[in-house]
């Protein structure tokens, strides 16, 4: 093995493992409900999804896969939202995502990452051995999985942001009017 050439791949692998660890930890631990942050995250996922729609719009099967992923992502987000637990702490509201949904999403992402990496590695090796062979840049499975993930996070964050506003409004109304003199 040629270590100088393998070092970037090793560093990239370590970075991916570290980011997956952080994602798993974040999925399990309670997170603070901050509407602005949730709206920003949803907007970012929607923007990435819009850009992905443009790049996948070249083949019919990619469009069908993206539509299936979109529907599955919405369904998964609604299910996750309905099973999310909320808790009030002195510094604000927190939510805990359904652990099963988190595990499914992480597993889906990791499995697809491993599969796609192996596929690209094989494609590069084949292209080196047989120059001029056509590349299969379009992949319906990748389109479906990406749209499941992007749609899930965008819809889930929008639902959480709406819930955060509801929870803070309920809490404010339960306190009563400010300055009423009640102690």
Architecture overview:
It is built from 5 helices and 3 strands; from the N terminus they run αβααββαα. The chain is mainly alpha-helical. The protein has a 3-stranded antiparallel beta sheet with strand order 1-3-2. Helix 2 packs antiparallel against helix 5 and helix 4 packs antiparallel against helix 5. It comes from Alicyclobacillus cellulosilyticus.
> What portion of the residues fall into strands of 2 or more residues?
5-15%
> How many helical elements?
5
Shape assignment:
globular
Decide which structural class fits the backbone: mainly alpha
Distance between the termini: 73 Å
The overall average pLDDT, rounded, is 80
User: Any idea how many domains?
Assistant: 1
Helical content class: over 70%
Backbone CA Rg: 21 Å
SSE sequence, one letter per element: HEHHEEHH
How many beta-strand elements?
A: 3
Arrangement of strands in the largest sheet: 1-3-2
Uncertain spans: none
Biggest sheet descriptor: 3 strands, antiparallel
């Amino acid at each position: 093995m040629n270590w100088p050439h393998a070092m970037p791949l090793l560093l990239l692998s370590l970075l991916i493992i570290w980011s997956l660890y952080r994602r798993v930890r974040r999925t399990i631990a309670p997170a603070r409900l901050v509407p602005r942050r949730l709206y920003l995250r949803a907007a970012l996922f929607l923007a990435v999804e819009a850009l992905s729609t443009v790049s996948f719009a070249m083949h019919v099967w990619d469009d069908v896969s993206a539509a299936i992923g979109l529907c599955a992502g919405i369904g998964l987000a609604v299910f996750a939202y309905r099973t999310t637990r909320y808790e009030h702490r002195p510094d604000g509201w927190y939510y805990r995502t359904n652990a099963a949904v988190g595990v499914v999403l992480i597993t889906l992402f990791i499995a697809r990452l491993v599969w796609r990496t192996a596929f690209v590695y094989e494609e590069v090796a084949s292209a080196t051995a047989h120059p001029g062979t056509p590349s299969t840049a379009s992949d319906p499975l990748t389109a479906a999985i990406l749209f499941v993930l992007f749609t899930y996070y965008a819809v889930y964050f929008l639902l959480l942001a709406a819930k955060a506003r509801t929870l803070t409004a309920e809490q404010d109304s339960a306190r009563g009017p400010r300055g009423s003199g009640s102690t």
